Amino acid sequence: MHSDASLFLSQIWNCSRGEANSRVHEFFETPYFKKGIQPIPGAREVLHNLSRFCNLSVVTSRQNVIKDHTIDWLEKHYPGLFQDIHFGNHFALDGQSRPKSEICRSLGAKILIDDNPRYAIECAEAGVRVLLFDYENSYPWSKMESINQHPLVTKVCNWDEVEQQIVSWIIS
Q1: Which of 30, 43, 66, 91 is most buried, taking the most CB atoms under 10 A from its CB?
Q2: What are the CA-CA distances from residue 67 to residues 25, 71, 93, 111 (Å)?
Q3: CB-based burial of residue 113 (10 Å sphere; 0-12 exposed, 13-18 middle, 19+ buried)?
């Protein structure tokens, strides 16, 4: 398990790191995880638009144990859109974990879209611009006061804002 991520969720859920890890793995067995997760409104259209002038890759903290499920989900909802899919393997019961900043650096990534402030700061500190995604200000885990102070982190609340921000960076 990635220690920062386990600490983060244990604080949100007010439980031990071990309990947070158990909850994450129990979630993988639920029908909602297996069949019910739908893309966020606007994501498909905006990512398709961005793919015309950006190379898109997925950098996820997801575990290797759900790698096949994740790839199948991405292919179902975003066929042919992503060049690469990279797994950080955080919260893993076994196997190596890899920081998102390291993955982004190895890809030469210029921008990361993420909903986790800790990953946002980590990647911003590595020189990557980050769009901290807090869908309609509804993600309690995306709130962190200090995040607003970092010059490479910009908060966005929907996919239209993602598109507008990326386009503005490209044309400036």
Answers
A1: 91
A2: 13, 6, 14, 23
A3: buried
Residues of the chain above pLDDT 90, percent: 62
pTM: 0.83
Q: Work out the angle at residue 156's Cα, subtended by the Cα atoms of residues 23 and 160, and round it to the nearest 5 degrees.
A: 115
- The single residue listed with the structure tokens 């909850």 is 23
**Mean per-residue pLDDT for 51-64?**
94
> Scanning the structure block, which residue is given the tokens 């905006």?
46
63 residue type, one letter: Q
